[in-house]
Structure formats: structure tokens, C-alpha cells
């Protein structure tokens, strides 16, 4: 054992070594079953059992558009008959990208040899072949995915055809109050940054189950990003539901009334979060969907009830009137928000390094919910929240900002 001299030259004492340093740490790791979304992965196969918004309706035009969804590179277009289509980027003939294709009446035509595919991938013309390939083109099909349009969004189903559910509807978007219309937005409202956010989707999705970050990150660190009432540390109750985690946050107003806020994540990727600026009390005004682009990036599509066009965009956070992308690096450092807190964890956070506490109960409940759905799909069962009945009523949420006067 190493020793060190004491005050007396004839006495020796053991050195008290520091413990708990970073030396010798094991390599960090993440939970691949919850984070990785490519085809064939557990989460990738689970997410492929649901519909996902992949763009605004206005994004589907006669100009081919590149989109990346769940790690797959695809081409979105709208043929001259007004039908939206979503096909694999690589032409089934010789592999040229359909991004350079030309959209016509019946579909999209490859720039290389002119093969044309309709919105369901059928090859309808092969101009270099006799009779336009009439004898053989039926044997070729461009990989494609079903799409539907609803609430101003393009929705796609990337899973097995025999398991395709009906596209859900939501009562908070179906029943409009007087003077309201629906508005769709692709600016990743709630993500706190640019449209495409460079980290794993779960880092944001779990944030929806974390009400305690609001008074700290959005209050203490960033000033009053929302309203002063949201800066108050809430009394929180977490409840498991079949399809999500319901979070009830209670705060007291200055006049002694009770501010009851209900929010939470819902399968498969929904953000059911009432306006944190509490512009009005009542049921949730908008809902968002976290779209995993791949393992290292995501974006958010939002639909809400508005009375004035542009109301959704005005919900975006601003510092001294400046949007996130207009802030300097010094301002990002001094006034961090969701983007900084989540992206700074890394492209995929190191779950092995976490030390969860009692305030993380919502995170634990959400992870267990996701794990149950992974188990269901692995065992050949349907995950929660899917329906195959077209008559299924709209999904109801209890979410909202409510004022209870004593």
C-alpha cells in the first residue's frame, strides 16, 4: 500500500485515494429495442403497424419530393389526376432515382428509360419496349406504400398489408368550436428547434412524459418561456392507460383556484399536449406526431383548431422576439430549451448512464408500455390503439388546461 509521511518523520499514514472517478468506465450503451426504427428491428416493426404523417398535403405535388421515414428513402408525388403516391426512390428498372422523374397523368416516369409507375407502383408504360411493354410490364411493380390524406397531412402505412389498420380520427380535431378551422404545421412545434431535429425520436417522445422539466428548463433556466404559472413546481399524478400515460399536473393560481393540466404521450408517437401558454382553458387544442426519420433524427407534424390562420406557428417559442434559428450560439447557451436538452444527450442517449428517480415515473411507465407492444407484435398479436373497423369512433383524449375555482 502506498504511504505518505505525517508530521512526524517516523510515522506513516495510508493515502486516502479518491473513488468514483471516470477512469475505467464501461462503454455506454442505449436500448436498441426502444430506439432503433429500421425495418426488421423490434421498434421498427412495431411502428410499422401504425399510420404516420409523412408530410403536409401541400408537400405532395407534381414535383417529386424526397422523404425519409423510419430509415427508408422514399419519393412523394401527386399525379395529374390528384392522387398522392409514395414509392421507393430507386427505379425498379435500372436503379435511377425517381427524384429526377417526371410526374404525368397516370404516375411518375423515370428519367433514364421512361418507365412509368402509378401511385400503387404498377408499371403502366415501358416506352423502349414493343407496345409500351404491354406483354411484360405487368410483371414489374415499383415498391410503394399506401397513403391517405386527413387533417391537411399525408399519412403513410409502411407495415404488412394484411395488418393495415384504419386511419384513426380524433375528436379534438373533428368537433370544431364556432369560428374554428383546422391547421396543419410541419415546423416541429414542441421540438424547440428546426424542422428536423438531430437526435433519436425517443428522446423527445419521453419528454412528453416528463412534466417536471417544465418549471426547470422552461422556467428557471430559460426564463418564462411559457407563462409564469407553468414555472410553478406541480403536484403530479401519473396514470397508465391502454394506449399511453396520462399526466395530471396541479398548480395553484394567485386567487386560490386550481389549475389542472392533463397531458401525455399516446401510441404510437402522439404528443397530446395542451398549449403551455394557456391562451384559454378547455380541451386540448392541438395534437402532434413525432415522426422518426431514422435512428438519429426526427420531426414533428402538428394539427390544431385555430381561429386565425397562422395560430399554430405563433405557438413556437421566441426569445426577445427571435425564433430558435435566429438566436446566436451565446443565446442558445444562456437560454436552453427542449432542443438543447434533448440533442445534447447525443444522437442516441446512453441509457446505461441514467440514474432514474421518482420524478421519472412517467418515463418508466412509457417504456413499459412500449415494451408491452413490442412483446405483442413479437408474439403475433396486434399492438394497442389499432383498429380494423372503419366505423371506429374518433379517439377521445381527456387532455386540456382546466381551471377549477374553489
UniProtKB/TrEMBL annotation:
UniProt xrefs under Gene3D superfamilies:
Naphthalene 1,2-dioxygenase Alpha Subunit, Chain A, domain 1, Rieske [2Fe-2S] iron-sulphur domain
**What positions belong to coiled-coil segments?**
none
| Domain Rieske: start-end pairs | 51-156
Keyword Oxidoreductase assigned: yes
Any single GO molecular-function term of the entry would be: iron ion binding
The UniProt keywords, alphabetically, are:
2Fe-2S, Dioxygenase, Iron, Iron-sulfur, Metal-binding, Oxidoreductase
Question: Where do the record's region annotations for Disordered lie?
Answer: 18-38
Q: Which PANTHER family match?
A: BLR4922 PROTEIN (PTHR21266:SF59), IRON-SULFUR DOMAIN CONTAINING PROTEIN (PTHR21266)
Protein known as: Aromatic ring-hydroxylating dioxygenase subunit alpha
Source organism of this protein record: Variovorax gossypii
